[in-house]
Specification:
Structural class: alpha+beta
CATH topology of the largest domain: FAD/NAD(P)-binding domain
CATH architecture of the largest domain: 3-Layer(bba) Sandwich
Order of helices and strands: EHEHEHEHEEEEHEEEEEEHEEEEEHHH
CATH class of the largest domain: Alpha Beta
Radius of gyration: 20 Å
Helix content: 25-40%
Bound molecules: flavin-adenine dinucleotide
Number of helices: 9
Largest sheet: 7 strands, mixed
Shape: globular
Distance between the termini: 43 Å
């Protein structure tokens, strides 16, 4: 099995992985990004999500800057949408959503095209259609990950890894402990129909949603491949029921156009981090903060993010980013969205570069060096 070597190996090209890989590459790291799908953006694109949620606290104050803002501004490039005028977009734009918050809509397909350009600009070595299948460890550190694609199986070694797989799959493969939580069956899909009640790209083409975040659609935590398969098939069943109920005259005008290419699970797995964010941490300030995250659901004070919530307790040379960082309950709910994925991804990318440059583990980096890099980015871009 041929071995490829990098400074930083980022696992998963969702929003968090892309943020981590671009940030590490911009710091001069030889960086690889491994993705099992043929799209970039993870759940945000393959899951047919279309709202880049808020960078502000809902009271008119911007909370997140840096890569998350850079990405939001670029997310509209190949689509009909704009940033709300109140937040610097053009007047009379097609924002798709209210301008009360600093958020915007994007085309999932268009966003993939932009993300690809950004990775190329940063010089990230991207592997698409490449599945990470294992991790080789020594003394609680990852020596290499095993990956498989059309070339066969091969090992990729790194000085530092970032697990941005959305489910902490690499930490799990390396023997780390994983926390899980329940989900809800709420499939989003693209529909052709004359009437729309959710969100539309054109008069006829729009995102539709079935199910709801309610006890009726509650689903156990997906801790096995069998359960994930069951979750996906139940989602399809809900969609089928929508069209089965239509009179035959309507069926030629109302039909599904595109289904999600990855399971629309909100929460898969979170690492057992050096610091587990939980409900009692709202309004706490941390000495090792890597940035704040607003509550996307309502105006509220933002949550501060300790660097330690990105660092697993049980695997040494890896950081986590995105929806698999150490956050539980309400905190997981707040952190599992796109802006938080971009923010934690950027922080992980900087931290990985500091760890590689100083030849230390992520747990042992000099936090003041990370803070200096973050402070530079936290100015409006
Ligand atoms: C129904 C629903 C609606 C949502 N709506 C919104 C919304 O409106 N706005 C918003 O901001 N957020 C929304 N979210 C949440 C948000 O889209 C995601 O949580 C966020 O994008 C997660 O980003 P991530 O990078 O952490 O993880 P992911 O997007 O999960 O990225 C992980 C990547 O890793 C890859 N990967 C995993 N395992 C492997 C492996 N073994 N080998 C190689 N690659 C691997 C995956 O293919 C994926 O590309 C919604 C989620 C759901 C389920």
């Amino acid at each position: 099995m041929a071995l490829k070597s990098y400074d930083v190996v980022v696992c998963g090209a969702g929003i968090a992985g892309i943020a981590g890989a671009i940030t590490a590459a911009r710091q001069g790291m030889k960086t690889a990004l491994i993705e099992k799908q043929c799209l970039l953006g993870g759940l945000a694109t393959s899951g047919l999500i279309y709202i880049y949620l808020a960078l502000c606290d809902g009271y008119g104050n911007q909370v997140i800057y840096g890569f998350a803002e850079e990405l939001l501004k670029r997310s509209v490039e190949y689509g009909p949408f704009d940033i709300p005028a109140k937040w610097g977009g053009p007047a009379n734009n097609y924002s798709g959503i209210t301008d009360k918050r600093y958020q915007c809509c994007f085309s999932p397909a268009g966003f993939t095209l932009t993300l690809d350009k950004m990775l190329a600009e940063a010089g990230v070595n991207l592997f698409l259609d490449t599945m990470i299948t294992g991790a080789k460890t020594e003394n609680d550190s990852i020596v290499s990950i095993n990956a498989a694609n059309v070339s066969g199986q091969f090992d990729i070694s790194g000085k530092c890894f970032i697990d941005a797989t959305g489910g902490a799959f690499v930490v799990q493969m390396a023997g780390g402990k994983i926390h899980r939580q329940e989900n809800f069956i709420t499939p989003w899909f693209i529909e052709m129909a004359e009437k729309h009640d959710f969100f539309h790209f054109t008069d006829d083409l729009h995102i539709q949603c079935e199910g709801a975040v309610s006890d009726k659609y509650k689903y156990s935590d997906c801790n096995s491949g069998r359960l994930v398969t069951d979750f996906i098939r139940k989602s399809w069943d809900l969609i089928r029921k929508r069209y089965d109920a239509l009179p035959s005259t309507e069926k030629r005008k109302n039909y599904p156009v595109h289904l999600a290419a990855m399971p629309q699970l909100r929460k898969i797995g979170a690492i057992d981090a050096l610091y587990m964010l939980d409900d009692s941490d709202h309004n706490i300030k941390f000495a090792d903060s890597v940035g704040s995250v607003p509550d996307w659901r309502k105006p509220d004070t933002p949550w501060d993010t300790p660097y330690r919530s990105l660092v697993p307790r049980d695997v040494k040379n890896i950081l986590c980013a995105g929806r698999c960082i150490g956050a539980l309950h309400e905190a997981w709910e707040v952190y599992r969205v796109i802006p938080a994925a971009a923010m934690t991804g950027e922080a992980a990318g900087f931290a990985a570069a500091v760890a590689v440059n100083d030849n230390v583990t992520p747990a042992d980096i000099d936090y003041s060096k990370l803070k200096k890099l973050l402070d530079r980015r936290n100015k409006k871009c």
